Task: structure prediction
Amino acid sequence: MVTTTSLASIGTEFFLAAEMTQTEIFEYVFEDTLLASSFVTNIALAGLTILFIVYMARGMTDPRAKFIAIATMLISVVSISSYSGLTSGLTLSFIEMPAGHMMEGEEVLTMWGRYLTWTFSTPFILIVLGMIAKSNWTKIMTTVSMTIAMCVTGLAAALTTSSLMMRWWWFAISSIFFLVIVYVILVDWAQEAQAAGTADLFNTLKILTVVGWFGYPILWALGVEGVALLDVGITSWGYSILDIITKYIVTVLIIMYVVKEPDTITGGSDWGLS
Ligand code: RET
Result:
């Protein structure tokens, strides 16, 4: 006799069988040159950035300056792992879009590993920016919490298949967290950097960061996850270009400034001991 439980398990097996395997997703990535190059380029750039930091920072002595350099390096360490996950197919899935979506009922490629790993990379960007502005740990940790919340709710937006409205609801929640971060960078940290004497560097970083970061929700909204005006290869390159600006270019500017160990950055030999 066919029970409800056995029907459910047949259903589950059928569903799993219909899903693409990781090997198939891996092959799919490399059949799409645009998509594959958007991942591989970033693995190479993250690797070069790590080597650049290690080389540049080798003679540093001040603990505060070193802390900034290490936190900066961790942005690229997370990035190389993130792009390796995407390239291997581990953090990619085909997700069926809900009713009302432009690609309703179709399985679209979701790069959910991007949203997941931003949870770990963006906190380092904010720690470094906050320290360059000589802000306090309350504000730095507030932005760190906000960015984690932004990325996790962004991940929820991308993975929600039940309702289109719920996808955009998650997007709205994520955007609120994002606006708090933008406010702290533009208002609080810009003023604090002025007082700390780091305004020259901070103003450049502020523009690259705020303008660059706004690109992510815009791409999400225009790409396959949102209104599907852009296809997946273009969306992926869009994110990869934004990553180049918000991570590697920002990193190079920070490291070039910090390795000189100016008074505006250093904390003295007993910094961090208490
Ligand atoms: C999402 C979609 C939901 C709404 C918002 C988003 C913002 C994402 C941002 C990402 C920044 C990523 C960076 C990564 C570097 O490693 C999640 C796309 C507001 C701002 C800088």
Remarks:
- Strands lie at 93-96, 107-110.
- The chain has a mean pLDDT of 93.
- Residues 20-258 form a domain with the Rhopdopsin 7-helix transmembrane proteins fold (CATH 1.20.1070.10).
